[in-house]
Write a structure and sequence with these properties.
243 residues, alpha/beta, 6-stranded parallel β-sheet, 9 helices, disordered N terminus
């Protein structure tokens, strides 16, 4: 992928099943790894947090490393994994303050704004469904203004349920009603896609490159987009005219 000139990347990957946009009214988007580059989060959780946590416990750094890794494994896929308050309490670190140190790594993914603005012109609802804590969303929105291109913002913390739990999609209906048969979900989290499938959503897409600098993801079950440009073919540039 051309990271310096992202618009030069192929607009669609050969063989990628096209979305039947005539059958889609609502698009549910994940945030990190889907609309925003996951590189920031990978740097934060894989490098900065372990370094800072171990630095604060110099007497037994190896024990500190194992303790952190064990806790990450325990809560992975649960709401605590995405909770600022949980990690602040567990590590004793200023989680939001540390995020600000890496803020220069926060970036919108290639073609995201183009796609979101085209969806608006096409009359489709654009809903953010993110596991991110509301404070984290607010922090990233201030930097990227990604929320300016969305109609509705839903955090899993508002529903007290992570997207990996199929109950999330039932609770979502109460605050942002959607027709399962006419909704597309785009998410880099394969477990979230699987839970959505169990909840009856059929039109699902993953992301091959959640981290624009990272390795490609693979999936035998879900279609993975090379980039968000894969969704542009066939998408109208204007809302349907009422008859």
């Amino acid at each position: 992928m051309d990271l310096q000139n992202s618009e030069k990347n192929p607009s669609a990957r050969p063989g990628t099943p096209a979305v039947d946009w005539a059958g889609i009214d609502t698009v549910l988007f994940d945030m990190d790894g889907t609309l925003l580059d996951l590189h920031f989060d990978n740097r934060f959780w894989r490098e900065l947090i372990p370094e800072e946590y171990i630095r604060c416990q110099p007497d037994d750094p190896e024990c500190a490393r194992r303790r952190l890794e064990d806790e990450m494994q325990r809560v992975r896929g649960k709401l605590e994994w995405y909770c600022v308050d949980h990690w602040t309490h567990f590590t004793g670190l200023d989680i939001l303050g540390l995020k600000r140190e890496l803020a220069h790594h926060i970036a919108i993914k290639p073609h995201a704004v183009t796609l979101l603005d085209r969806l608006q012109r096409a009359g489709r609802q654009r809903v953010l469904v993110t596991n991110a804590h509301p404070q984290v969303y607010a922090f990233k929105h201030r930097i990227t203004r990604i929320g300016d291109h969305l109609d509705t913002i839903i955090s899993a913390h508002d529903l007290d349920c992570a997207k990996e739990d199929a109950a999330f999609w039932e609770r979502l209906q109460r605050v942002a009603p959607y027709d399962r048969a006419r909704t597309l979900l785009v998410d880099d989290n394969l477990l979230a896609l699987a839970s959505a499938a169990r909840a009856g959503l059929n039109e699902l897409r993953g992301m091959r490159y959640p981290d624009e600098r990272g390795a490609a993801m693979t999936s035998e079950r879900f279609v993975l987009l090379e980039s968000l440009a894969d969704l542009l073919p066939g998408l109208p540039d204007a809302a349907p005219t009422a008859t």
